[in-house]
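Chain A, query sequence.
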Amino acid sequence: MAVVSQGRTTVHPRRKPVQQSSECGKDDVNSRSLMLMRVKAIIRQEATALERLSERIDDHICMLVDYILASTGIVVVCGIGKSRLVGEKISATLASTGTRSITLDATDALHGDLGRVRAGDVIIVLSNSGETAELMQLVRAVRQLSVKIAAITGRANSSLAQAADFAINIGPIEEACALGLAPTTSTTAMAAIGDAVALVLQERRGFTRRDYARLHPGGTLGLELMRVRDLMWPLDAIPVFRPDTPLSRVLLSMCGASRKSGVAVIVDERPKAVGILIGETVRRSVERGAAPDLNDPVERYMQHPIAPISGHAFVAEAARLFCQQEAELMPVQDEQQRFVGLICREDALKPSWTGDIS
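Chain A, predicted structure.
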């Protein structure tokens, strides 16, 4: 290729495209293959450790569960380093499945946070070595209180295991780390023990899906189990009138209602919803040139509602009823079949509320 610069012509050799050698490509493939083999080996090693743990575990874990069930205190979980992080997960699982629990930083506990602990509490201490200095100092400190101590450790003869009321031995576990140093397999085993304790407690307490939903109101299950009464437009936010009320009065009330929904409900003497006046319907009539007589009784312009639903029903049930009908609003009634509110199609048909609630 020639380039002209100030009357001189400079010739540059044409560059050849760089091609990746086939040997380089093979090396990459081999590298990924070896990497995948190592990943699978790590997972198998941890799975094998859990299988051995399931055979090694004894009834100390059952004694711990029984004591927690009988206790009026809370479960306090603590550890140092990676064990502390596992402890946070264990505590969160306990709390979400019906067992009151908090985490406690061992260092902070020795500088005032020990005040979080009360007589009757259960202290679960996680330490693979069972010799962590801060944890042993914490154990000595809480012994002044009337508490029970449970140790989850890899050494049955460690100082922590000897000091505990319940010693859960995960046994000597080889870490998956190539250096044998990073807590990996051991922390997986601790987490599994925590899951086992939490789930057995959940089952022994008779903790149900509805109990779980109560503690997870922002999750999908909590939304599935939400009641119609929790989502409906309440009675005090909806203009309510008798059938013979002049249309003018109803429209004025709709304009001044706290919930600007453009809706009024017509009830009989029980009171049961017998009609719904929708402002948008009246507006469309005016646009078509069929202006209503404002002195007419509202019953001439109301729409007959679909069958009401109980306020105790699940929102998922309301969603199914809306799917079967073209109505935008559904009256809600109490045990005496009295009108107590409205639920609208848009609120009821949110995807998270249409699941199975068996």
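Confidence is low (pLDDT under 50) at residues 1-11, 352-358. The first helix runs from residue 22 to 56.
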